[in-house]
Design brief:
The protein has seven helices and eight strands; from the N terminus they run ααααββββαββαββα.
Length: about 280
């Protein structure tokens, strides 16, 4: 066995590695500087992005996510430049391909989670409601209690604690009662075709005006809408200055009761009083 030949081969190999390392030293220095500089730039980007996003979204969670993503992207760019300086372009391509495949797989695996997350981001910027707003969405009416990136929590008027995925809220209509300060109550009635229509109209208006003790009711409108013998159809509407859904239902309730009482008092309709049982 020729050990001297083996020794020569090993020494030559080590010399070539040493030579290559010395030649690569300037590139390595630049790459290290690039990574270190990228780290500090990424922290600066995160800080600036957090402040700017917070001014727009007014949400700590959204600002944290957006600034974190930008910080990560900045670090990835710095690492890519460093690998390019070291002539490791093949490694960069392989890493990018691997990240793309992993991202695609995770996207399919967590499709609902990512949909809720993205919907939460859009809602945070669009701001269709705030905490404390009374809204109606997905067949629930309640007060917004908590807004997160994946779901929104509301307390219903029945006292239920409901957690709704943001995807369902984002893709379906939302009624924000807290931003609907002037709502109209609409009621449909029928009266007999033998009724004095002008008199019935004045009776209805007076009945609704009686609800105006606290100046909530205004702009009363009444229209006869059709004839269905022996009945005549009419629509009554009025505006209430309240964003509370309970106040809307209360005023509608009081209006119906007041109108039917006025109809009975003026004999526009006949009211049968049940006999008392003895």
């Amino acid at each position: 066995m020729n050990f001297s030949h083996w020794t020569t081969l090993i020494v030559e190999k080590l010399e070539r590695w040493l030579t290559a390392s010395i030649k690569l030293l300037p590139n390595l220095t630049v790459a290290v500087i690039t990574v270190v500089a990228g780290y500090f730039v990424a922290k600066l980007v995160r800080r600036i992005a957090y402040k700017l996003t917070l001014k727009i979204s007014h949400s700590d969670s959204v600002s944290g996510v957006v600034s974190g993503i930008l910080q990560t992207l900045t670090m990835v760019i710095a690492a890519t430049i460093a690998l390019g300086v070291l002539n490791l372009d093949t490694v960069v391509s392989s890493l990018l391909a691997g990240v793309g495949i992993v991202g695609l797989a995770l996207g399919f695996a967590f499709q609902d989670l990512s949909s809720n997350f993205i919907s939460g981001l859009f809602m945070a910027f669009k701001r269709p409601f705030e905490i404390g707003d009374q809204v109606e969405t997905n067949a629930f009416i309640g007060t917004i209690h908590d807004i997160r990136l994946r779901d929104t929590t509301l307390y219903t008027t029945q006292g239920l604690h409901v957690i709704i995925p943001n995807k369902d809220i984002f893709q379906k209509p939302i009624i924000n009662y807290s931003r609907s300060e002037n709502r109209r109550v609409e009621l449909d009635f029928t009266v007999a075709n033998t009724t004095d229509l002008a008199f019935a109209e004045s009776v209805i208006r007076d009945a609704i005006k009686e609800l105006n003790s606290d100046s909530l009711v205004s702009e009363i409108e009444l229209y006869y809408t059709g004839i269905e013998d022996p009945k005549i159809k009419l629509k009554v509407s009025f505006k209430i200055e309240s964003a509370d859904p309970k106040e809307f239902m209360k005023q509608r309730h009081l209006a119906i009761r007041s109108i039917y009482k006025a109809f009975a008092d003026h004999q526009i309709i006949k009211v049968t009083v049940p006999e008392a049982h003895t």
